[in-house]
Amino acid sequence: MKFDKPIVKGTFLKRYKRFLTDIELTEDHNGNKIGEIIIAHTANTGSMKTCVAEGWPVLLSFNDSPTRKLKYSLELTHNGKTWIGVNTSVPNKISLEAIADGTISELQDYENIKPEAKIGESRIDIYLFDGDKKSPTNECYVEVKNVSMIEGTTGVFPDAVSERGQKHLRELISLKEKGIRACMLYIIQREDVESFAPAKSIDPEYARLLKLAYDKGVEILPYRCRVSEKGVEVEKLLPFQL
Fold first, then answer.
1. Please, what are the domains in the chain?
2. What is the per-residue pLDDT across 154-175, written as a single tens digit (0 to 9) for each?
3. Residue 4: its pLDDT value, please?
4. In the predicted model, is pLDDT for residue 229 greater than 80?
5. Helices 163-177 & 204-216 angle (0-180, nearest 10)
6. With CB atoms counted within 10 Å of each terminal CB, which end of the chain scores lower, N or C?
7. What's the rounded Cα separation, in Å, for the pair 82 and 226?
8. Rounded CA gap, 107 and 30, in Å?
């Protein structure tokens, strides 16, 4: 996924009220000068542990739509080694791209790709199927999660207790018990990661459910991305530990 909006450089100062961040611009943009502090939106509901800190360089996207209160959105942070994708709306987009172009080889050979599908009381991110929706001959449900937290060289999820994530795992287990293919796709938006694991110390129930899901036959696909100032692209399947 290439960034299609202007990208602006800045320095992270602080996050507050969950979705707001103060950023000091390090380049002139849209009438704002170097050193000015602007408020940027962050589309991240997690704790953002290990992926942002005061003084880190950041990249912002800019959208001058009259319907937007905040024109800037936080896209990437840099820890001195790698860019880290913190926009949690990105993984679904790049997952669809990577399935369509064959990068995620495990999810090929389906005739149709549909973003989001209602299952029980949840919406699963991607629905793959042959035939038509009313009578699919072959189908697969894929839930996508963004991974930005790291422990050593292991990417971990979630970075805060996720009851929503737990619910999605229960839905995938239910699908698998009915004989339907189900997958957890973890999109790791940083290049300093060599493996994946559930964050047991943060959300032990999520870790328990992920192990149960795997034992029931739900597939686990942790894919690392290439992350740069130009964009984010799915790159490589990593090993995992449960």
1. 7-85 (2.40.50.580), 90-237 (3.40.1350.60)
2. 999 999 999 999 999 999 999 9
3. 77
4. yes
5. 10
6. C
7. 10
8. 42
